[in-house]
Amino acid sequence: MSSVNGTDWIATRGAPLRGSIAVPGDKSVSHRAIMLASIAEGISRIEGFLEGEDARATEAIFRRMGVRIEAPGPGRRVVHGVGLHGLQPPDGPLDCGNAGTGMRLLAGLLAGQSFDTELVGDASLSKRPMRRVTGPLARMGARIETGEGGVPPLRIHGGAALQGIEIRTEVASAQVKSALLLAGLYASGTTVVHEPHPTRDYTERMLQALGWPIEFSPGFARLEGGHRLVGRDIVVPADFSSAAFFIVAASLVPGSELQLQRVGMNPRRTGLLHVLRAMGADIEETPAGEQGGEPVSDLHVRHAPLRGIEVPVEHVPDMIDEFPALFIAAACAEGATVVRGAAELRVKESDRIATMATGLRTLGARVDETDDGATIHGGAQLGSGAVDSHGDHRIAMSFAIAAQLAAGEVRIRDVDNVATSFPGFDALAREVGFGLRTAQ
Ligand code: S3P
Questions:
Q1: Which residues are CB-contacts of 217 (< 8 A; sequence separation ≥ 6)?
Q2: CATH domain 27-235 topology
Q3: Residue 301 · residue 247 · CB < 8 Å
Q4: What contacts 317, CB < 8 A, 6 or more positions away?
Q5: How far is the CA of 406 from the CAs of 159, 368, 383, in angstroms?
Q6: Which residue has a Cα nearest atom 11 of ligand 1?
Q7: Binding site for 3-phosphoshikimate, residues?
Q8: C-alpha distances in angstroms, 380 versus 329, 332, 365?
Q9: Distance 173 CA to ligand 1 centre (A)
Q10: Which UniProt keywords apply (predicted)?
Q11: Which is the closest atom of ligand 1 to the Cα of 105?
Q12: Does the annotation count 298 as an active-site position?
């Protein structure tokens, strides 16, 4: 039966995980590919585009601003760029769906347009903090109103004269950095961003690939306004964050041996590998060249007993989307795992510290929450129960892993949002051995 909030999964222990799979394209790169190709001059062909709801929401937004985007096949897009000043005013609010990346990056890009826009989102996105972008953008001269308490909708007034600034961001956030750099394209003068910890640099790399002069190094980026972007072919690598569910599952389920083909290995994304290896995981990495300027590797994961660790705080930003899966690994490891310095988890698609702690407790694990993390006490046999994903894709997929180790059936409520980042996750999971079906 479906819950009031949509579809539920019934997940049960399956077989040892076996096979060789490819996960879909990177969500972060897919958003940026559509945005930058749209404001470039000429045609960009995108391969490996993530056919997920988040990236498609961004695509629909640019179509509504007059960009012709063809979809000649799954994962393929041909974007007819309109140039930096060629976007047209849309005929109403622009819906970012569930995507924080879409909304925050667009806030920067749209602040530089000559026309007004309004960005709206779904129930989860409508609760997420936006002042982290609107505050610094205001310092550049942007005029953006938020809803009460700094949440969406965002009303962006066009025609603002943006001015480059030098800024030290408060939170390590690629979304904040990217919003500033995208506004910087339209600003006079130079925009310089220093980060408290380096974050993913896809915006910088793609701007450079499309011909915009930019200087960047880990934790630093600098560009000036007034140049142009030129369309080109963009290849989107497989999303490490999607691969992560299978890496954790194969590490945990006895007898597993799973290959993941050509996974994007940007060092700002792969913190989970360091942490899992420190816990005892057996993950073999074979470099497989580059895709779209990003290193990719084939990963071979074999089951290995894991032990709890203190997660080094310096890895936190490099695995920020992987904590739901890590919490499951920790619950199934021997001993305690301590997570600190991860308060950002409280403002993701759900409060991921609370949703993971509640779900794990339902299944019989002991979890002590703190403001910026948790201690997960591993080793207890997970039992059966119903857990709520709170509409958060990564929570839903993480509990599908937990069920592979549980003694009984796990109902995972409200899983429709898995389609935002990983359409087809359930079919792929079944293919490699997961016990997982849609509740009737
Ligand atoms: C993203 C950055 C991260 C990440 C999100 C995607 C991006 O958010 O959690 O899933 O594409 O820039 P923050 O930059 O806010 O940490």
A1: none
A2: UDP-n-acetylglucosamine1-carboxyvinyl-transferase; Chain (3.65.10)
A3: yes
A4: 172, 197, 198, 199, 268, 271
A5: 57, 20, 5
A6: 28
A7: 27-28, 32, 173, 175, 321, 348
A8: 12, 7, 6
A9: 6
A10: Amino-acid biosynthesis, Aromatic amino acid biosynthesis, Cytoplasm, Transferase
A11: 12
A12: no
Calculate how far, in angstroms, residue 174's C-alpha sits from the geometric centre of ligand 1.
6
Q: What does the block give as tokens for 173?
A: 């956030």
Residue intervals of the chain classified under CATH 3.65.10.10 are: 9-25+237-438, 27-235
9-25+237-438 maps to which CATH number? 3.65.10.10
Which residue CA neighbors atom 13 of ligand 1 most closely?
173
Question: Ligand 1 atom 16: the closest Cα is on which residue?
Answer: 173
For the chain (440 residues), the mean pLDDT of every run of 10, in chain order, is 73 98 98 98 98 98 99 98 98 98 98 98 97 98 98 98 97 97 98 97 97 98 98 97 98 98 97 98 97 93 98 97 98 98 98 98 98 97 98 98 98 98 98 97
